[in-house]
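Hey, resending since the last one bounced:
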Amino acid sequence: MSTLALLVVLLLVVVVVLLAAGAAYVVHRHPSWGQPLGAAFGAVTVMAALVGVILAR
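The structure tokens again:
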């Protein structure tokens, strides 16, 4: 992989970690939001898997 691709992957990892931390904080403060956020994380997981498959080609 080129340096640019590695930097993009690093940026994506940082953004995902920030979003996960934010979601964990929101669920901690508002427990009733747990189920909708769980569904959203499921969708993000599927999208990440598709991006991984595309990048692996």
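The chain is about 90% helix and 0% strand.

Sorry for the duplicate.
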